[in-house]
Specification:
Layout: H1 6-9, E1 16-17, H2 20-23, E2 31-32, H3 36-44, E3 58-60, E4 63-65, H4 73-81, H5 85-95, H6 99-105, H7 109-112, H8 125-138, E5 154-158, H9 162-173, E6 177-181, H10 190-193, H11 202-214, E7 218-220, H12 231-237, E8 240-243, E9 249-250, E10 263-265, H13 266-280, E11 294-298, H14 302-313, E12 318-323, H15 350-359, E13 364-366, E14 368-375, E15 381-393, E16 399-403, E17 409-412, E18 415-418, E19 422-424, H16 428-433, E20 457-459, H17 462-465, H18 470-489
Parallel strand pairs: 5-6, 5-8, 6-7, 8-20, 10-18, 11-12, 11-18, 12-13
Antiparallel strand pairs: 1-2, 3-4, 9-19, 14-15, 15-16, 15-17
Length: 495
């Protein structure tokens, strides 16, 4: 805990944000760090709750609550309050190889499970987490720690997202020789190309990758296993393989006009923007531009919000975000959404704030279903036709969306971005390796064991569990490394 009476003395305060009118003119981090003294107060709010639930990740009704990497949250909250930052950093790293990734981009299910959150604003856990690791880097406490000896065992990790990086980091600690294959030109997977620069700067990813390289991990970029690198070489050159390729198959929308020009998956938009930004500060023009366009974002989640923020920075003409759900309430439903479930409440995220600043109002349209896309004589999108819907459940509990007569609407559109998630992993490599999959196309590998039907091949992260959170990917990467080490050595000391 922090201070016994801290939760009564100090109000919750998370990271400050730069003025939306100013930050939309650049691609810099949109947040402002708190002072050390203020972070100490936030750590002090961690109460003597007896049985903390913030640090134990679980799924309730399909939604994550608590921390899947079992972060020692009460411990490092107290240490920060006491001013013991270096020890707090050590505790933070015990359970999470990359607290900076979660500190910048995790939706903080730990805060949803905070006991204080039953009747007060929860502890600002993510703010404290990020403050600890940033101080660690600033003070030079985060340094390469290569293993003292090598086992001679060689492991290939396919995919350099959070699951792959976590697996590689742990296996390297155990003394194995680890090679990480990444098909893109930069390491990081969706950390690099799926999260915009103002939300998770690439410099944050790169500084950690540099440390991992100095610790002895080899990164091979611009190389897609199964195409640029044969699977026969993979099996011949490595003692074990961990598949961490993510769930990269986009969910599509089956409506008339889907094939029109100007209709793109959100990740195509975000990936091309970040690559062009990092390559040339957008001067090469090799990206999908929203400049001067009427932009429709279909999807109400975090990726949709990232599309809003990116479109605003392109100076789009107008901006609307469709959410299939009704607008949520400002407080949780104590019957349908009780603590410690993750609170399903109305939130105004950074992208919505920025759109409201530029266009005068929150960009979201609720309970909206897309009916069709209409194009011009050149085959380019010009309109989106929608209808409002209401949600009900049938006797089996299945969701039924009923159209509301008279709510039909036509929206002008020059660019439509589909931010409705991913359906599962790509099947090409899995087929070449003869890996068994579940009915939903994810790899068949038991949680906690991560072994596939092919000996010596493991799977972790979104490729195994489906689209999920960064913290689940890190959790599975760490645990898959543990099981891979056990397979290679007969025993393991990895957590």
């Amino acid at each position: 805990m922090g201070k016994a009476t801290g939760f009564m003395e100090y109000k919750r305060r998370s990271l400050d944000e730069r003025n939306p009118a100013e930050r939309t003119k650049d691609w810099e981090d949109y947040t402002i760090p708190l002072s050390e003294e203020e972070v100490k107060k936030q750590g002090a709010r961690c109460m003597d709750c007896g049985v903390p639930t913030c640090h134990t990740g679980m799924e309730i009704n399909g939604v994550t609550t608590g921390c899947p990497v079992y972060h020692l949250i009460p411990e490092w909250n107290d240490l920060v309050y006491q001013g013991q930052w270096k020890e707090a950093l050590r505790r933070e790293h015990e359970m999470n190889n990359f607290p900076e990734f979660t500190g910048f981009a995790c939706p903080a299910p730990c805060e949803g499970a905070c006991v204080l959150g039953i009747n007060e604003p929860p502890v600002a856990i993510r703010t404290v987490e990020r403050s600890i690791i940033e101080k660690g880097f600033a003070e030079g406490w985060v340094v390469p720690e290569p293993p003292e000896k090598r086992t001679g065992k060689r492991i290939a990790v396919v995919g350099s997202g959070p699951a792959g990086l976590a697996a590689a980091a742990q296996l390297n600690k155990a003394g194995h020789l680890v090679t990480v294959f990444e098909r893109n030109d930069r390491v990081g997977g969706l950390l690099t190309y799926g999260i915009p620069e103002m939300k998770l700067p690439y410099s944050i990813v790169k500084r950690r990758v540099d440390i991992l390289e100095q610790e002895g991990i080899e990164f091979v970029t611009n190389t897609e296993v199964g195409q640029d690198y044969p699977v026969s070489d993979l099996r011949q050159n490595y003692d074990a393989v961990i598949l961490c390729g993510g769930a990269a198959v986009h969910r599509n929308i089956q409506v008339e006009g889907r094939a029109l020009k100007g209709v793109h998956y959100a990740m195509e938009f975000l990936h091309s923007n970040t690559k062009s930004l990092l390559d040339s500060n957008l001067e090469d023009g090799e990206y999908i531009s929203a400049t001067g366009k009427n932009v429709i974002v279909i999807g109400g989640g975090d990726t949709g919000t990232d599309c809003l923020a990116t479109s605003v920075r392109h100076n789009c003409k107008s901006l609307t975000q469709f959410d299939i759900y009704d607008k949520k309430g400002s407080i949780r439903d104590e019957v349908g959404n009780p603590w410690p479930q993750y609170p399903v409440v109305h939130r105004v995220e950074y992208g919505q704030k920025e759109a409201a600043e530029v266009f005068g109002d929150d960009p979201r349209a609720y309970a909206v279903m897309t009916k069709k896309f209409v194009g011009d004589e050149n085959g380019h999108i010009k309109e989106v036709h929608t209808v409002n819907v209401k949600l009900r459940y049938d006797e089996q509990g299945n969701k039924i969306r009923e159209e509301i007569p008279g709510t039909e609407k036509v929206w002008p559109a020059d660019l439509v971005l589909l931010a409705i998630g991913f359906s599962g992993p790509e099947q090409g490599l899995l087929g070449q390796l003869e890996i068994e999959t579940e009915s939903n196309t994810t790899v068949k590998a038991e949680y906690g064991k991560y072994t596939t039907n092919v000996e010596g091949i493991f799977a972790a992260g979104d490729m195994r569990r489906g689209q999920s959170l960064i913290v689940w990917a890190i959790n599975e990467g760490r645990e898959a490394a543990r099981e891979c080490d056990r397979y290679l050595m007969g025993t393991t000391e990895l957590p």
